[in-house]
């Protein structure tokens, strides 16, 4: 499962980007002030400190938009639930959560739609790699009961 974080981390360096909230903040001024707003402002202040003098601050540059790690993680969880045939209600809840996560990251300006799509692709790729590692020759299209997945670990 190390492929997913490594792939996303690589995308942050190969295609560095900021979410729309930092590029076009005027589009988000009508949103209510929430914890999300405070976090976005804090991350931006840290970014400015790091860019001004990386060696003079303890701050971390924590803004990276492409691909969406939020979406990648929840898509991986939803696909994993399908692979091990978790109950339908849980699978439905995970896909609903994935959809809401994708919508929220765009709505709050963390990501552009392309970031969300790339995150979903990386999540699917990570799930496929994990399925191949657990069951050589198998993949996400071959459903694996939970009991069988435990045997192959």
Mean pLDDT: 76
Write the element-wise H/E pattern from the N-terminal end onward: HHHHHHH
Number of domains: 2
The N- to C-terminal Cα distance equals 13 Å
Please summarize the sheet with the most strands: none
Number of helices: 7
Number of strands: 0
Q: Into which percentage range does the β-strand content fall?
A: under 5%
Structural classification: mainly alpha
Looking at the structure, what is the overall shape? globular
Estimate the helix proportion, in percent: 55-70%
- pLDDT < 50 stretches: 149-153
Keywords: Membrane, Transmembrane, Transmembrane helix
Domain Inositolphosphotransferase Aur1/Ipt1: 9-128
GO cellular component, one term: membrane
InterPro entries: Aur1/Ipt1 (IPR026841), PAP2/HPO_sf (IPR036938)
Strands, helices and their partners?
Layout lengths: L2 H12 L5 H4 L11 H18 L16 H15 L4 H20 L5 H22 L11 H6 L2
Helix pairs in contact: 1-6, 4-5, 4-6
Considering the chains and any ligands shown, give keywords for the structure:
153 residues; PAP2/HPO_sf; Aur1/Ipt1; membrane
């Amino acid at each position: 499962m190390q492929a997913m974080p490594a792939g996303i981390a690589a995308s942050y360096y190969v295609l560095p980007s900021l979410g729309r909230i930092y590029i076009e903040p005027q589009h988000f001024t009508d949103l209510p002030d929430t914890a999300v707003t405070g976090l976005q402002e804090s991350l931006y202040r840290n970014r400015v400190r790091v860019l001004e003098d990386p060696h003079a601050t303890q701050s971390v540059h924590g803004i990276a938009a492409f691909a969406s790690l939020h979406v990648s993680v929840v898509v991986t969880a939803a696909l994993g639930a399908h692979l091990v045939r978790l109950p339908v209600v849980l699978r439905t809840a995970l896909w609903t959560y994935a959809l809401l996560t994708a919508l929220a990251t765009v709505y709050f300006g963390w990501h552009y739609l392309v970031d969300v799509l790339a995150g979903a692709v990386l999540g699917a790729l990570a799930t496929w790699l994990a399925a191949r590692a657990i069951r050589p020759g198998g993949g996400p299209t071959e459903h694996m009961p939970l009991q069988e997945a435990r045997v192959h670990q």
